[in-house]
């Protein structure tokens, strides 16, 4: 099943001390069951839509949701929606499908828009949690996680859908990052670990 409208608003998050965090995906109204190969379907929230969906190509497949999931991850990490700050062509400035299509034609992605200078720009909000006197081991772990997460997001925003990682590969990457941060859990770095 391809969801086709993955965005922050469609993730329901509940947490409790006994059960931990429970995340469910909501609003399956645009989803469709894939049978034998890619399909053509143009649906979703424009700033979260993958290029193949925006353009109406017969290339909608599981990789389409990977792009949208990367938009959600980017919003969590940066605190800003994809293409934040851009005005759309709607008379109220709302981002429309044709706006996103034009940006994609220029090879602009949400990641390039929000963090054109790389991982240091994307993760600058977390820098406040890094102790000024952090030792080399902690600083290397933090920098390594930032670089790895940025590279994974960059891969998710590939204009060639077949080059995007799978959701399983994304999960493995995040698990490795969390494992790297585990060694510094007792320091002030734990805030970074919780957000990731």
Can you give a write-up of this model?
The chain is mainly α and 196 residues long. It contains eight helices and two strands. Helix 6 packs antiparallel against helix 7 (167-182). Strands 1-2 form a two-stranded antiparallel sheet. A hairpin with a 3-residue loop joins strand 1 and strand 2 (20-25).
Provide key terms for this protein.
globular; 196 residues; two-stranded antiparallel ribbon; 8 helices; mainly alpha; 6% strand
Return Rg in Å. 18 Å
Instruction: Give the CA-CA distance, first to last residue.
Output: 26 Å
Low-confidence stretches: none
Walk across the major sheet and give the strand order.
1-2
H and E string: EEHHHHHHHH
Query: What's the shape?
Result: globular
Count all strands and give the number: 2
Overall average residue pLDDT: 82
Helix content: 40-55%
List the helices and strands and how they pair.
Elements: E1 11-16, E2 20-25, H1 51-54, H2 62-78, H3 97-105, H4 110-114, H5 119-122, H6 136-156, H7 167-182, H8 190-195
Antiparallel strand pairs: 1-2
Helix pairs in contact: 6-7
